[in-house]
């Protein structure tokens, strides 16, 4: 039995699934007996210690208790046998560290010295076996590593570099049991190794390999670190994780570990996290921007709620109040170089959506960024993203852009510098999509009420020019929305539009009554109703006779439309138009009435015009 154990694996009895509890118990008893009484046991300590320490994690309680008792006795006997060498340590026993793993009894001096003297022989093979192809072997190695570090205590520092390398690799393991146990070992690094030592190494490792396993290891070490020491180093640690090479990733596992790191830090430093609150906030917003996983989104939101609670705030809304401006400022001049795939662009998008009412307090910083990224020379996909963001914000303006009642001051900038330049016709599907999105955004802006008559006055010429162009667009959606926007513009400007300008518009408006889409034709009738409301009283019909005749004749064509709904809508428009010159309208109707399929609408229109003329006199 002795030869078989010594020649086999250091984890012989635990990595063999077929060994029953009774066999494992027998092996534990035999190995413990050898470590106590074998005459030449000193030559085999490095082989026997792993066998016994592995039993400290056995599934059976009685085996664990037996191994614990044997290990304790082995340590005491080792102290007696090496009393001369350990005299100073025995006479001046060092007290248990103030920061020690909870619910764990400290091994005696003999146990600690035994492990320290043989760790250099055990650890390399153990770390190698953490990558073994057999899952059970990896699990047992992870369990053994924990107990070795418990006994090694601050001597772990002597082996910190290879240990961290092993921890990083083990965190990649597909078996969750291995990862869980390895993290427990990483926590012990925080307990036993000085922060100055492990911090330098983990930050170097993170720069060399920006992988989630490094962040996972750092998070575990942080959980084991003492608060007073960690507070001194938290800024450097958070800054390292906030590095774009680490945090700007689409990998869900990295997102999970960033959240894990932040929670670990908050759990240790408590209220002192205030010093890095901005950085943790930035990390959570970054996760929200990059992830597509609902559970990760929920975890990030929960982390922000927890961060707010630690600092005495009522909720995460207070965090946005405090940190939004600083996050926006951190983008710097880089906003001019954003592309559709820039992580900063995604973070900006998420920040504005999540910030809610806080957005309205920072328009001086937000609007210039949106303007810069909606210039026609920018990437089309980037502009589509920004228009989507802008539309969402404008539609919810009372609780976002206008929460501080100042969005009206920027409404002209939005229309003139963001929307209109993107309404100019260009060939291609992407350009067509941008025009559709831009005009939809204009519609949302008008619906929000931010663009008043006074603010529209200075930009009415370019607005009407682009709208007349858009109602002839190739895309049905663009034409439809442009008609609606035009209706709203006429309602808004009213009599502020001069007669000559109005006369220049009607030829293009009448063309839309011939549109291939009945929906657009019906919408244009509403636009024409708003159009005729723009004419001031005392209209000089004789001066503008030619214009009126062209308008009436164009409308009369559609009063005989095959679609009843179009006929009825045009009838309403002509009744409104008749108010400009009822007698002229009557003459025009009489001249074409005989050509119509039915004279009902013509007679009704004549009756309306006669009644209006009589009432006017």
UniProtKB/TrEMBL annotation:
MF-aspect GO terms: dynein intermediate chain binding
Transmembrane segments: none
Any single biological process term in GO: cilium movement
InterPro entries: ARM-like, ARM-type_fold, DAAF5, HEAT_DAAF5, TPR_DAAF5
Occurrences of domain Dynein axonemal assembly factor 5 HEAT-repeat (ranges): 99-290
The Dynein axonemal assembly factor 5 TPR repeats domain, residue ranges: 20-89
Gene Ontology, cellular component aspect: cytoplasm
Name assigned to this protein: Dynein assembly factor 5, axonemal-like
Upper lineage: Eukaryota, Metazoa, Spiralia, Lophotrochozoa, Mollusca
